[in-house]
Amino acid sequence: MMSNETKKMGNIKGSTKISTKISTKGKAMSTFFLAVIALLFLHLFYVHQKMNLSSVLLTINEGLGMSPPSIINSNSNSDPSILVGSKKWRLWHEMNPSQQEEELEKVFARAAPYGTMLGKGEKLHNTCNDGKKPLLFGKGGEHMVCGPQPEDKSCKFFSFGIRDDPSWDKNLGESWNCRGFAGDPSITHPSKLHPAVTFHQIGLKMLRPNVEEKRDPADEWILVTLPALRSFLGWDYIDIVKIDCEGCEIAMARDILLEDPTFLDNVGQISIETHATRTWVNSTEELYYYALMFPLLEEAGFKLVWSNIFGCGKWEHDGCRPEMMEKMNMSCGNRPRNVVNKVPIGWSCHDWLWVKV
Fold first, then answer.
1. Which of 10, 87, 280, 302 is the most buried (most CB within 10 A)?
2. Are 275 and 321 in contact (CB under 8 A)?
């Protein structure tokens, strides 16, 4: 039997162990609650102040003695001054006038080589990744596509601005068995263009309403961004994006920077129609985002395969901002057709086919 003295010593040791466990557990709980409070503070402060998420997380982790996170995932609330490729581009409204002027010159310089490549008429600049020329889809042919046909049977595409000619979309569904989302808020089509292609009266966002949207104020359009649509559909990768919607191409760069700077990393090729007249590009902000699409495509690994120039119809009368030709070397201008047909012959609208290398 143990003496009273031995029992006392045992009780003291047991109490010490329990106290040590409680103390250790208490410290762990304190650290956990501090981390939770810090993260809650971060969330509230970031949402309301739009502060730089990466730098804040780094500060909090250093304060808690943790290793900094290696990657900060981008989402719809990404910092507008986000790193894209090897260059940091900013949203227009986030800059002061002097910064805007500086960035404008930078994007002009990046767009100018492509304006020079555009030149006059239809041009083949590179072959497709299969070593062949681009393919003509649909009956119009102004929107080309590069082979080879995707092999994994999960081909997907976005198509905006189909008007009364959905032949491109149907052709892609039939020939390549691509699943497609076709959108145009200015016209009505059956919801099924093809068993694999659906139609929706939805358009892409713009910097300002275009002439079609303003035609009937009572006709309210539903507009979306490319990053938001990809997220909504849950499509990890989009093989082809076709854009022909009179002004939405100018907002593409803004929407990518604002919502998902990695969007172009998940696209295989882009067939896009751009409009250079003042009808669509008439402010310095619109010039900025028009020019910015070229470095964004370049930095995401796209090469220019094919281009074509043509007239913008009656909108040629509006002419182009001088920066379009003087700073970016883009084809702009027109000449009278004849005394009867007042719509000029022009070269201010352009088609481009970009393919991921």
1. 280
2. no
Q: Environment class of residue 262 by beta-carbon count within 10 Å: exposed (0-12), middle (13-18) or buried (19+)? A: middle
Measured CA to CA, the distance from residue 53 to residue 108 in angstroms comes to 30
Dump pLDDT digits (tens) for 179-219: 999 999 989 999 999 999 999 999 999 998 877 766 777 77
**49 and 61 Cβ atoms separated by less than 8 Å:** no
For residues 300, 305, 311, 312, the Cα torsion angle rounded to the nearest 10 degrees is -30
Residue 318 has φ and ψ, to the nearest 5°, of -75, -20
Higher-pLDDT residue of 189, 65: 189
Encode 294-322 in three state secondary structure. Answer: HHHHHHCCEEEEEEEEECCHHHHHHCECH
Query: Tell me: the pLDDT tens digits for 109-150?
Result: 999 999 999 988 899 999 999 999 999 898 866 789 999 998
Q: Supply the DSSP string of 211-225, one letter for each residue.
A: HHHHH-TTSPPEEE-
Rounded Cα gap, residues 84 and 300, in angstroms: 8
Per-residue pLDDT reduced to its tens digit, 234-258? 999 999 999 998 889 999 999 999 9
Paired tokens of 164 = 């009364």
Please give the DSSP secondary-structure letter assigned to residue 263: G
Torsion of CA 14, 18, 24, 27, to 10 degrees: -140
d(CA 254, CA 109): 18
What does the longest C-alpha to C-alpha distance in the chain come to? 124
Return the bridge partners of 180, or none. 157, 197
